[in-house]
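Need tokens for this chain, all 263 residues.
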Amino acid sequence: MRENAALTTWRAGGQTVGGWLSIGNAYTAETMASLGFDWLCVDLQHGMLSYDDLKYMLPAISNYDAVPMVRVPWNEPYEIMKALDAGAYGVIVPMVNNRAEAELAVDSCRYPPDGHRSFGPIRAAMYGGRGYAREANQHIACVVMVETADGIENLDEIASTPGLDGIYIGPSDLGFALGLSPTTGSQDEKHIETVEKIRLTCKEHGIAAGIHTGSLEATQRYLGQGFNLVNLGTDSAFLAASAAGQLAQAKETAGNQRENSGY
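Here are the structure tokens for all 263 residues:
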């Protein structure tokens, strides 16, 4: 079976940089995959896309080495299983609050006897290759998000869930959970301390610690802090930032030309 290179890196304590896909388009997915990200996550929770888009985006990612992952809409077994059957090599499960919910996510990712994933890996077996049914339990990454007050309270029991591969932090929802702003809360000392607590708890239990960011500065900071999977940014944000920057420069140039010409 094809190796999950990102998961192998996390298990060895290494670090990876990923990208986020929120646009339901195979071309943008393939473009992002061609850039050299270690993993790419298709966002079915908040992204502007559906399962139908996933069927085209995962094959597009497969042309390159980026490990395809999916953030499922919710901790529903059928959502997790369908994403894996489509060829995702891992899922990120939002809003996990306790050990039982973490166990449900893990259970949905594993074939018996380790879990209750139903067998029908339609495209997954083609992407994963020979040995998928036998080896999938070792190569499919199950990552849950701790981003609620209950999740923070139950952090240790979540992180110690057998079979869990990592915890991923959503800084905005974590801000809500701490009574802070979702946009500026990450600058608060309470937020900073909680993020570090989650990272250290993951390290203690031998699982990967991940976090969502939207800037190079934040990505570099969290990598320096020791996080194993860090998201550099989102396709739509990259597009907007590049267009906005070049547009501003173009308008400035046009304005200077008009001034210089006397008009």
